[in-house]
Amino acid sequence: MHTDIITQIDSPEMLESLLTEHAAVLLLFGAPDCGVCQTLKPRIAEMLAQAFPQMRMAYIDCQAQGEIAASRNVFALPVVECVFYGKTFGRFSKVFSLADIRGALARPYGLIVTE
After folding, report:
1. Among the listed residues 18, 33, 80, 82, the one whose alpha carbon sits nearest the alpha carbon of residue 8
2. How do residues 81-108 score in pLDDT, each as one tens digit?
3. How far, CA to CA in Å, does 93 sit from each of 2, 24, 29, 46, 79?
4. Thioredoxin domain location, by residue (predicted)?
5. How many CB atoms lie under 10 A from the CB of residue 70?
6. Distance between CA atoms of residues 37 and 24, nearest Å
7. Which of these, 6, 52, 13, lies nearest to 29 by C-alpha position?
């Protein structure tokens, strides 16, 4: 299991630092009592480790970090946001699949890996 590659975001400054230091970041917004969020977390980490190894993954607990969730317009869970060079390239909310995420990541990730 690749849950060790997940960065837990504890402050807005930590999120900003992660987004500026890394070209490719996947943000997962969830909550401890959200079963779907907790099921998705290791599955997304596994997918990233296999298909997108240079991409970073961050988990934001919306119960603990409500300010971050509100600033990123997250009002329902789960939400996945794909960020490249600080810009959102894909956003998925409530109903989506791992294939949706993989499809959104493939092209922009392919462009940054060749750099």
Report:
1. 18
2. 999 999 999 999 999 999 999 999 999 9
3. 23, 19, 9, 20, 4
4. 16-94
5. 11
6. 21
7. 6
